[in-house]
UniProtKB/TrEMBL annotation:
GO biological process, one term: cell surface receptor signaling pathway
Gene3D superfamilies: Immunoglobulins
Keyword Disulfide bond belongs to the record: no
Cleavable signal peptide: 1-20
Keyword entries, A-Z: Immunity, Signal
Coiled coil spans: none
Cross-referenced InterPro entries: Ig-like_dom (IPR007110), Ig-like_dom_sf (IPR036179), Ig-like_fold (IPR013783), Ig_sub (IPR003599), Ig_V-set (IPR013106), TCR_beta_variable (IPR050413)
Domain (Ig-like) ranges: 38-128
Domain of life, per lineage: Eukaryota
Entries under PANTHER family matching the protein: IMMUNOGLOBULIN V-SET DOMAIN-CONTAINING PROTEIN (PTHR23268:SF102), T-CELL RECEPTOR BETA CHAIN (PTHR23268)
Database matches in Pfam families: V-set
Name of protein: Ig-like domain-containing protein
């Protein structure tokens, strides 16, 4: 089916899982599901209703047959930090306030299909 071949499935999980530790994805809401045409871009929104100290946002993706990889770390008050293999050109992110953020995937290729996650964590000055 051609239509299927030329569409990308970008699955965004509605996270309702709590990890203990630095990263906590409970009370985080994401765009649940996006179907996009190859070559276009897809923007995913993420928001949470924790307090304003949870102002750090991480974006991850999991492609079929791959583990979860971090794309970028964002805050409203510092430059985004991209992991190697990921660039601001392909994955522009926004973070304007403590509670929301977005990730765009530009020039989508079929192999960008996968599950994209966001997670938030609390700002800490202790630097662990
Ligand atoms: C994400 O948020 C922007 C700005 O509020 C909105 O225009 C866009 O439609 C949202 N995208 C999705 C996939 O919900
Ligand atoms: C997807 O395909 C493009 C073009 O063939 C390639 O440059 C890119 O590295 C691939 N990405 C992944 C995650 O395999």
């Amino acid at each position: 089916m051609d239509i299927i071949k030329h569409c990308l499935l970008i699955l965004l999980l509605w996270c309702d899982v709590s990890f203990t530790g630095l990263i906590d994805v409970s009370d985080v809401t994401q765009t649940p599901l996006l179907w996009v045409i190859e070559g276009q871009s897809a923007t995913m929104n993420c928001s949470h209703n924790k307090d304003h100290s949870h102002d750090q946002m991480y974006w991850y993706r999991q492609l079929p047959e791959e583990g979860m990889k971090q794309i970028v770390f964002t805050t409203a008050y510092s430059d985004h930090q991209y992991e190697s293999g990921f660039s601001a050109d392909k994955f522009p992110a926004t973070k304007k306030d403590a509670l929301t953020g977005s990730l765009t995937v530009e020039r989508l290729l079929f192999n960008d299909s996968g599950v994209y996650f966001c997670a938030v964590s609390e700002h800490r000055d202790t630097g662990d």
